[in-house]
Write a structure and sequence with these properties.
The complex is a heterodimer. Chain A is an alpha+beta fold. Chain A has 4 domains: 1-50 and 267-406, no CATH class; 51-265, no CATH class; 474-543 and 723-866, no CATH class; 553-714, Barwin-like endoglucanases (Beta Barrel), CATH 2.40.40.20. Chain A contains 25 helices and 20 strands. In chain A, a hairpin with a 4-residue loop joins β16 (639-644) and β17. Chain B starts with 11 loop residues before the first strand and ends with a helix. By secondary structure, chain B is of the alpha/beta class. Chain B has a 6-stranded mixed sheet, with helices on both faces. A 4-stranded antiparallel sheet of chain B has the order 2-1-4-5, with helices on one face. Classes of the chains: A alpha+beta, B alpha/beta. Chain A binds chain B through residues 403, 405-408, 491, 494-495, 498-499, 502, 767-768, 771-781, 858-860, 863, and chain B through 61, 64, 66-67, 86-87, 90-91, 93-95, 99, 101, 103-105, 107-110, 118-119, 121-124, 149-150, 164.
Chain lengths: 866, 257
């Protein structure tokens, strides 16, 4: 049977290879994920062990209660050569105006306990000496031999009121003796500067109030040569305080534990991609199942002949399953190789970048990362082939004697239709229910209700997807017929439509693979678009002004040249001038000093991102930020008395808005009433929407600096909220790009499926194509016909996916963002257009190879075939 | 309604001039047609006969422009089709040639009516409804128009195929063993329909067959052996055709010695 199967496979090697691509991509995804997680773990492990230097044992106490007595006892214990606590605290270093925060630690008493690796100079030995990271030295522009000023603060509680106290400053000048390698970015909180142990104890001592002595969470221990690790470990454990919660660990144990701690938090980096890999594999399974079904259908005659000459059903089934195993194994191995190569290339590229984490560059090919992708790929392939295998067993021996003509595919049954309808309707109902539950919260989210809404929503989504998958057999041909109507005047188009729907199961299955990918991509885009819109609204309120420019002091005005320079900078779309002056607000008897800003309400709208923040600004009102109003229990409409420094006073009506900060806003008329001159000492600028905020603000800044340096214009400071807004937006964009990239794999796999199904159909229809050619279908028309068929199938899958994805995306956003407030249902037109375009192009592309074969076959050759 | 035979043209519907077809190259080269000169007249039902491997199917494929000649010419009407590009050939086929094959004549996803109308639609020209009506009635397909091929019997399928071949009123119809897959009763029916097409509708038909009974329905039989014309029989009867075939076998036997 095996020989027969292999012979059969050889004849359809091309088809199987194409189907195999789906599995190759899926397993490569899994392989990369596993390899990447191993690299992440090893990189972390390296960072952790680097901090443990060459120590032999570690005493760990999560309660930070290891004290000096215990340290002494450990140091005196048999077999212990040296023991040092690990401790560090933050100081600020100033080198001629450049400052940097450092984490300073003590030089180890034994070189085996020192994680510091010197690249230049030597370790500090005397008080007043220090070594620090090579990167820090570069940023501070210092070298060994240079002196820097170190400052730190310690909290000194008030003797009478322990709740109160002051930060006492400490400062010392130190000379740099050496530079050390920078820590891995993963060794968070490890020292990147060292001072001698005595000096460290003295500095550290200043940070403890009164006589509280230092305690530590861990002590590194180096053993004497020849000392037994386990014996010494027991000795040390005995030396610890009887009620101590500390543990003695070997370095290997400690490294393992620490690594697990750090990577445990990063489980999302493994679980999330594996989730997407699962989606990719599910799509691949659909493609495989479809390919095998088509292959079995095409082999009906030879399978029947096998049955005629005495093959049992089991034998026929096993030919299909053996085929699946071979294809699955071969493609999974290819996928593993592809994934490994991709990972190696990725590592090489990343190593070229200057990351602050020293990447572990070896490929971690272990049993798990090799066997798991192969096993998963093979199992998925075989599972996908189960249904086609059963189909093969149903071929009756008599089929060998029947002519293949007059094919009539069994339509899908009513039960299936009913099942699909119930699932979709139920799913949509659940989604609506989820939105209703979330909406009922009215912004007052209780976690329980939100979770309920989410659970109901996810259930609804799954049910709807399942229903649609079952129902593609009805929906996709219907969609294709609908689209086909447009083409009914063009004969090749009409034939293409008829061809696309003649085997509803096959077309449905092909389209459903694409449907899944497209639905997920659309859902993510829709969710991200809504999140971005909501975030955008929130940011517009938080940072209503893109850039504000001000000069110090209420009397100094911005120079006309400065105003000109700003308004003429490329990327500035609008600007207004305002005046800021200190005033005192009288609220409920208390007097509060604030900086009031006077601006013309009409001009203001042009520069505000969210005009709502200045709502109600008029000559007799004062706009109060919500935050400030809450502090003083100020309600909208309350009367506020405003007093200028010259003593004049007016009463204004408070208008509380979402304005950020604490400073109120009035009109120039209010300033006039207070006798305050309108000194143009502040400027609000709005940037055009399509410019790089960082760049434009940089240009404004340097133009103003140049002016101040060359003329007697006052020094102006520039604050750019636009930069922060851009940063927030780019985080969402980046996340979305990563997610879409991972989903794209599924879409690519689905497209492989479309191409494969199409070429199988073309093979099946060689004689039809030949007949059409004989009857006068030109080569161009034949190509066009196949292109239309490809586009119709891909388009139907994509259209269904887009609609479903939009629905899920909206429902998801409505539920998740319900707590944030108003949800805008955005349609990511650009992304949808791209998905649709990709589907159409892919449909066209999928038809290219099959069309070449079809066009090249001379009609005579195809007609001669039996 | 224009006449299918313009008076200005010659009486030949399709003509082979010194036509040669060699398959393969070098030692494996097989000469399927060896300098064949033959003329098929308009309004005549001609049968091409010969034993297996005599080159009769090859001759038909070349005459119909389905395959390219190694040398020589095929003149269809007044066009030398051996000089045409694939596209020109395709257009010539759909406008001036009709086909009836042994099997698989119909597109399974279209109804009988759609199959009949297909060639005109491919040519983007509306089929003459009166002509189609006439065809449908002549071939007794009125009740079968909405049926798909798998709902039709073999004989009915071939009748649809003939109606389709006639639908564009082509210059010539080529029929390749049109009764090969049919029982004798259906076969006789199909052959009489072919003859009616010639007699009543003025069509030209060239039919390849190896069945002397089928050949007897033709006006003229062209005998082919070893890629050469081995003779013709006018107004054949099954007996005369059989005698002709026997003569051919005798010839072959002699050649073999």
């Amino acid at each position: 049977m095996l020989r027969l199967t292999l012979a059969q496979m050889r004849t359809s090697a091309g088809r199987l290879a194409a189907a195999g691509i789906a599995i190759v991509l899926g397993t490569a995804f899994v392989a990369v994920t596993l390899l990447a997680s191993a690299t992440l773990e090893q990189t972390t492990h390296n960072a952790v062990t680097a901090q443990l230097a060459d120590a032999d044992l570690v005493v760990n106490d999560s309660t930070w209660s290891l004290d000096a007595d215990e340290l002494d006892r450990i140091r005196r214990a048999d077999g212990v050569a040296a023991a040092d606590p690990t401790s560090s605290f933050s100081v600020e270093v100033d080198a001629g105006g450049r400052t940097e925060w450092l984490n300073v630690g003590a030089v180890a008493g034994d070189p085996r306990l020192s994680p510091a690796v010197y690249t230049q100079g030597s370790a500090p030995a005397a008080p007043g000496e220090m070594s620090l990271g090579v990167g820090i030295a570069e940023r501070l522009a210092v070298q060994p031999g240079d002196a820097v000023e170190v400052t730190w603060e310690s909290w000194v509680p008030d003797a009478e009121d322990p709740e109160d106290g002051v930060w006492a400053p400490h400062a010392q000048t130190v000379r740099i003796t050496g530079l050390i390698e920078e820590n891995s970015g993963l060794a968070y909180g490890s020292p990147n500067a060292y001072v001698p142990a005595d000096e460290f104890a003295r500095w550290e001592g200043t940070t403890y109030p009164d006589d509280a002595a230092a305690t530590w969470s861990s002590i590194l221990i180096a053993l004497e040569d020849g000392a037994d690790v386990e014996a010494t470990r027991a000795v040390i454990a005995a030396e610890l305080a009887p009620d101590s919660s500390a543990e003695v660990l070997t370095v290997a144990e400690q490294a393992e534990r620490k690594t697990a701690e750090i990577t445990g938090n990063e489980v999302t980096f493994v679980v999330l991609p594996l989730g997407f890999a699962a989606v990719a594999l599910a799509v691949a399974a659909l493609v495989i199942a479809n390919t095998f079904q088509v292959l079995v259908a095409q082999r009906t005659r030879s399978l029947a002949l096998l049955r005629c000459v005495g093959a049992t059903k089991e034998q026929v089934r096993s030919t299909v399953l053996i085929e699946a195993i071979v294809v699955g194994l071969a493609s999974s191995i290819a996928g593993l190789v592809l994934g490994t190569v991709l990972m190696a290339v990725g590592l090489a590229v990343l190593a070229g970048l200057n990351l602050d984490v020293p990447l572990d560059r070896t490929l971690h090919l272990n049993a798990l990362s090799v066997l798991a992708p192969i096993a998963v790929g093979t199992v998925v392939t075989v599972l996908a082939a189960l249904v086609p295998a059963r189909m093969a067993t149903r071929v009756a021996p008599l089929a060998a004697l029947r002519p293949v003509e007059g094919e009539h595919t069994r339509g899908a049954g009513r039960i299936r239709m009913a099942f699909a309808l119930v699932l979709v309707a139920g799913g949509v109902g659940l989604l609506v229910l989820a939105v209703a539950i979330a909406g009922g919260l009215g912004g007052l989210a209780t976690d329980g209700a939100l979770l309920l809404a989410l659970g109901v929503g996810v259930l609804g989504g799954l049910s709807a997807v399942l229903g649609l998958l079952i129902g593609t057999v009805f929906v996709v041909p219907a969609l294709i017929r609908l689209a086909g109507r447009v083409l009914s005047r063009w004969v090749p188009g009409r034939i293409a439509t008829a061809n696309a729907v003649r085997n509803p199961r096959r077309t449905g299955a092909t389209a459903s693979a694409l449907f899944i990918g497209v639905a997920l991509v659309t859902m993510m885009s829709t969710g991200a678009a809504a999140a971005k819109d909501s975030l955008g609204d929130a940011l517009a309120t938080q940072y209503p002004v893109d850039v504000s420019i001000s000069v110090g002091g209420p009397e100094v005005a911005l120079d006309a040249a400065q105003v000109n320079v700003v308004t003429e900078t490329d990327g500035v779309s609008a600007s207004i001038l305002g005046s800021v002056a200190p005033v005192t607000l009288g609220i409920d008897g208390s007097q509060e000093w604030v900086q009031a800003q006077a601006v013309d309400p009409d001009d203001l709208t042009a520069v505000l991102r969210d005009p709502g923040v200045a709502a109600g600004l008029a000559d007799d009102t004062i706009v109060m930020p919500r935050l400030y109003a809450e502090w003083y229990d100020l309600a909208d409409g309350d009367r506020v008395s405003v007093t200028a420094e010259n003593g004049s006073e007016v009463e204004l009506t408070a208008r509380v808005t979402e304005l950020g900060g604490v400073d109120p806003m009035v009109t120039p008329a209010a300033f006039a009433a207070l006798g305050l001159p309108f000194v143009e000492n502040t400027m609000a600028v709005r940037l055009a929407d399509d410019v790089d905020a960082v760049e434009v603000i940089g240009e404004i800044q340097s133009a103003l600096t140049d002016l101040s340096a060359t003329t007697d214009a006052p020094t102006a400071s520039v604050a750019g909220a636009a930069v922060e807004r851009a940063a927030y937006t780019s985080v969402v964009d980046t996340l979305l790009a990563v997610v879409l990239g991972m989903l794209a794999v599924s879409v690519v796999i689905a497209l492989v499926g479309v191409a494969n199904t199409l070429s199988l159909s073309v093979l099946e229809r060689r004689r039809e194509s030949a007949l059409l050619r004989a009857m006068g279908l030109t080569r161009g028309q034949l190509r066009g016909m196949l292109a239309v068929e490809g586009v119709l199938i891909a388009g139907a899958g994509a259209a269904l996916g887009i609609v479903a994805g939009l629905g899920f995306g909206w429902a998801g956003t409505a539920v998740i963002l319900s707590t944030v407030g108003e949800v805008t249902l955005a349609v990511p037109w650009r992304d949808i257009a791209m998905v649709a375009l990709v589907a159409v192009l892919a449909g066209l592309g999928a038809s290219v190879l099959p069309a070449r074969t079809a066009v090249r076959t001379p009609p005579v050759a195809a007609l001669a075939m039996d | 309604m224009t006449s299918p035979v313009p008076a200005s043209e010659s009486t030949s519907a399709v003509r082979a001039v010194d036509l040669t077809k060699i398959y393969g190259e070098g030692e494996v080269a097989v000469t399927a047609l060896d300098h064949v000169d033959v003329t098929f007249d308009r309004g005549v039902f001609t049968a091409i006969m010969g034993p297996s491997g005599s080159g009769k199917s090859t001759l038909m494929h070349l005459l119909a422009g389905l395959d390219s000649a190694t040398s020589g010419q095929v003149i269809l009407g007044d066009v030398d089709i051996t000089t045409l590009t694939d596209k020109q050939l395709t257009i010539l086929r759909r406008e001036r040639v009709g086909f009836v094959f042994q099997s698989f004549n119909l597109l399974p996803m279209f109804t009988a009516e759609q199959n009949i109308a297909l060639p005109s639609e491919l040519a983007n020209s509306a089929a003459d409804p009166a002509w189609l009506d006439l065809l449908v009635d002549t071939f007794g397909l009125r009740d079968r128009l909405t049926h798909k091929p798998h709902q039709l019997s073999g004989g009915q399928q071939q009748r649809v195929a003939i109606a389709r071949a006639l639908s564009t009123r082509p210059h010539v119809i080529f029929a390749d063993e049109p009764t090969g897959n049919l029982d004798s009763r259906s076969g006789a029916e199909v052959l009489s329909f072919l003859r009616r097409s010639v007699r009543e509708l003025g069509q030209t038909i060239v039919m390849v067959t190896h069945d002397p009974t089928a050949a007897a329905y033709a006006d003229r039989v062209v005998m082919l052996a070893d890629g050469r014309i081995a003779g013709t029989i006018e107004d054949p009867t099954p007996e005369s055709v059989l005698a002709g075939l026997d003569a051919l076998r005798g010839l072959e036997t002699q050649v073999a010695r």
